[in-house]
């Protein structure tokens, strides 16, 4: 019964995001966001855990504030168009956890399991980012880009909780998605799809091994092949070439250079180096240490599916893209 209810709420969550994407007026978009909120809260609160109750209340309060601000903006029909764009963007920043309204996202992630946290970092951002892409305020978008990439990079440096670290990584990638909106409204979807695809095998591995803190990674990696695969996944998430994670960032960099906004590119690339630092910190424990494990503690690897997915994403797809470009 619980599985059926989870599937029902998850289906409504997807459907509400599609409602926002297909809507052509603000009221319909607001209704889609409310459907999304009412379906996602019971989806994350099904676990009998007081932490999930806290995260549900936290999510409800923040999303209600964003929805109230959006509704107030829509109903104030006599607003100046520029002011309306600012208010809509700020309301969507509250909903996505974009700086300066980001503090709820890492705290909420730290109280959720990996699969529901993955939904929060990916699916729950589709509707607000769609609404944000329909607005137009270049100066505010530039400020959000800079704050997102810097706070997402700096906030994850001293984190030991893997869930908070992935939340700050999501904030950093949100900044890159907003930069796609600044240059081309539709290109953010491509970045979002690639980010979601790269993140999936990492979340599956962390969930299967029940890893919640950095010091648990070393004892969870069992052989050299798994070390190699996990290293590729983390470095790809940080956007290191020649892995597939570098491709969407390369696309943004090319667009930004053509638009003569090189100073923003410098900030974004430097922030990516900081995110690479804490990704390398995660994998360095099992790459640089020669750990020993008793034979009776070694479990058979049941992760062949996400291992194959990670190898395909990070080695084969970049080669195909390079061939197609030249």
From TrEMBL:
Q: Which GO terms describe its molecular function?
A: NADH dehydrogenase (ubiquinone) activity
What is the recorded function of this protein according to its Swiss-Prot or TrEMBL entry? Core subunit of the mitochondrial membrane respiratory chain NADH dehydrogenase (Complex I) which catalyzes electron transfer from NADH through the respiratory chain, using ubiquinone as an electron acceptor. Essential for the catalytic activity and assembly of complex I.
Q: Where is the NADH:quinone oxidoreductase/Mrp antiporter transmembrane domain?
A: 23-275
User: What name does UniProt use for this protein?
Assistant: NADH-ubiquinone oxidoreductase chain 2
Gene expressing this chain:
ND2
Q: How does it sit in the membrane?
A: Multi-pass membrane protein
Main localisation: mitochondrion
Q: Name one GO cellular component term.
A: mitochondrial inner membrane
User: Organism source for this protein?
Assistant: Nabis apicalis
Family label: Belongs to the complex I subunit 2 family.
Where it sits in the cell: the answer is: Mitochondrion inner membrane
Matches recorded under PANTHER family:
NADH-UBIQUINONE OXIDOREDUCTASE CHAIN 2
């Amino acid at each position: 019964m619980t599985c059926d209810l989870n599937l029902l709420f998850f289906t409504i969550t997807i459907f509400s995001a599609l409602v926002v994407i297909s809507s052509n007026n603000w009221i319909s978009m607001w209704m889609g966001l409310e459907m999304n909120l009412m379906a996602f809260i019971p989806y994350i609160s099904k676990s009998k855990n007081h932490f999930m109750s806290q995260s549900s209340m936290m999510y409800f309060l923040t999303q209600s504030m964003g929805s109230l601000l959006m509704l107030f903006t829509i109903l104030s029909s006599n607003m100046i168009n520029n002011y309306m764009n600012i208010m809509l963007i700020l309301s969507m920043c509250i909903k996505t956890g974009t700086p300066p309204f980001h503090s709820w996202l890492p705290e909420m992630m730290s109280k959720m399991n990996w699969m529901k946290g993955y939904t929060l970092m990916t699916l729950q951002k589709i509707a607000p980012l769609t609404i944000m892409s329909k607005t137009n305020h270049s100066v505010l978008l530039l400020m959000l880009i800079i704050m997102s990439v810097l706070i997402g990079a700096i906030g994850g440096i001293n984190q030991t909780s893997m869930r908070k670290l992935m939340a700050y990584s999501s904030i950093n990638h949100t900044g890159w998605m907003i930069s796609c909106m600044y240059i081309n409204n539709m290109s953010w979807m491509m970045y979002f799809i690639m980010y979601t695809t790269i993140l999936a095998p990492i979340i599956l591995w962390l969930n299967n091994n029940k890893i919640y803190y950095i010091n648990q990674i070393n004892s969870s990696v069992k052989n050299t092949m798994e070390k190699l695969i996990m290293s590729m996944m983390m470095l790809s998430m940080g956007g290191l070439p020649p892995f597939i994670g570098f491709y969407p960032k390369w696309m943004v960099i090319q667009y930004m250079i053509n638009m003569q906004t090189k100073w923003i590119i410098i900030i974004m690339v430097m922030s990516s180096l900081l995110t690479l630092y804490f990704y390398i910190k995660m994998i360095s424990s099992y790459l640089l240490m020669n750990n020993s494990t008793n034979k009776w503690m070694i479990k058979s690897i049941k992760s062949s599916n996400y291992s194959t997915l990670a190898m395909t994403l990070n080695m084969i797809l970049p080669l195909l893209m390079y061939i197609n470009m030249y």
